[in-house]
Amino acid sequence: RHPPEKLKEFEKLNNFSLKDSMAQAARKKLLAGLKFVRLKNFEFNEDDCRMVVTSAGGQLLSSSAPAADVIVLASAQDLSGPGKAKWEKHEKQGKDFIKFGALRQKLDRKSYKLQ
C-alpha cells in the first residue's frame, strides 16, 4: 500500500482526484457506446487494453475488419508503417487517451489524438 501523501502527490501531478474519479465511474461508464480497435504496437497489451476498454463500457473489436465508427488505439510506430492507409480516415488515439481518461474520468479526444 502506498502512503496517502504519495497518492496526493500522484493526483496533483496528474491533475485528478481519485475520489472524484471513482464517484464519476460509479455514475457513468466513460467509454459507453464507443468502439475501438487496438493496433499491434499500442503500448498496452491486448488483454490489458480489453480489460480497461470493456470495464469502462466500450467495445474492443478486431482490427481485421474496421468499422466506420471506431477509434483506433495506436502508437506512432503503427502509423508510420505499412498498412497505415487502412486507418487514415479514422480517429487515432495514443495510450494517454486511455490512461488519463481512466484516471480523470473525462474523454479528451483532442489532446491525445495521433496524426
Explain briefly what this protein structure is:
The protein has about 120 residues and is α/β, with parallel strands linked by helices. It has helices at about 5-15, 20-25, 45-55, 95-105; strands at about 35-40, 60, 70-75, 90-95. Helices cover about 35% and strands about 10% of the residues.
Q: How is the secondary structure organized here?
A:
Blueprint: H1 4-14, H2 18-27, E1 35-38, H3 46-55, E2 59-61, E3 70-73, E4 91-93, H4 95-104
Parallel strand pairs: 1-2, 1-3, 3-4
What keyword list fits this structure?
alpha/beta; 4 strands; 12% strand; single chain; globular; four-stranded parallel beta sheet; 115 residues; 36% helix; 4 helices
Any overview of this molecule?
- It is a single chain.
- By secondary structure, the protein is an alpha/beta fold.
- The protein is 36% helix and 12% strand.
- The chain contains four helices and four strands; from the N terminus they run H-H-E-H-E-E-E-H.
- The chain has helices at residues 4-14, 18-27, 46-55, 95-104; strands at 35-38, 59-61, 70-73, 91-93.
- A four-stranded parallel beta sheet has the order 2-1-3-4.
- Helix 3 links the parallel strand 1 and strand 2.
- The mean pLDDT is 86.
